[in-house]
Amino acid sequence: MHLGSLFDCNPAVNFASRDVANPNVQWGPRFIPDWQFFYVISGEGILRLGPSRYRISPGECVFLGPNGVHLLTTTKATEYYSVHFTFHSDSPIPVHPAYLIRGASAVQLDAEPERFCIAIPGAADIELPNHFSIVHVEALFARIVKEYVRENAAYPFALRALMMELLTLVVRSNLSAQADKPASKIGPALDAMREQPGRQWTVAELADLCCYHPSYFTVIFHQEVGQNPKQYLISERIKQAKQSLLRGKPIDAIATGLGYASIHYFSNNFKKETGLSPSEFRQRPYAAKTTENEG
């Protein structure tokens, strides 16, 4: 999902807290109606998101959105900051997310999560990871919690300003991390699957694009993206299917374009990965807003 330009953000903080959880506390599996930063001060947590699991250590943060299912679990006594927010809101007044949080099934939890990108004028678009390290942020989280709890005069506007500061810090941190990251060893294969998701790619063909032996290619592919090539291609197809569905493209045309032999096969695969049929996904209440963001 593309979140638009950072310059166009009008964020609103919906909830902010600093709290302590005992070991083995779980949040989820669930859908949240907004976005969330969960930052570990001390202790440790585990984030399960699709097929991936992330260990959250002190100084690390997770970033969660409304279109995917997640499960957060503490493995020891954990002190943390939690901030729920929206990227684009006409009003800065907080709207508590609790009443719109929904439980999810194990099948939905296994679905591949969406990737989130944001445009930075003067720099390349960046992908916001679901798990990352970030420094010099605790004082900012503390100020957000203080404003939220005390509700001093004009506090919603103060929260909006602090949220923009936090988003800027997160973006800068990830821009720096991506600049320091070595070039992808499997970039040509990733580009090929993104550009031609309907093609029935073989491991040998993808490996040849990167000038590797297929067995070595499979190993480094999994090391870099956490999936095998077949799983990645399915995830890419589902991601592009979601975008096409929300733009109103006919389901049969989507199935054909993504290399499925029939609408039935496409629908079954889509429901297996997302927990929803293509029609159900298109009819979600937040579909119109998602379409605007994915442009």
Radius of gyration: 20 Å
Overall shape: globular
Instruction: Please tell me the overall pLDDT.
Output: 87
Order of helices and strands: EEEEEEEEEEHEEEHHHHHHHHHH
Question: What percentage of residues falls in helices of 4 or more residues?
Answer: 40-55%
- Number-wise, the strands total 13
List the strand order in the largest sheet: 2-9-4-7-13
Strand content: 15-25%
- Main sheet: strands, sense, barrel: 5 strands, antiparallel
Pairing-aware structural class of the strands and helices?
alpha+beta
Low-confidence parts, pLDDT < 50 over ≥5 residues?
A: 286-295
- Terminal CA distance: 9 Å
Number of helices: 11
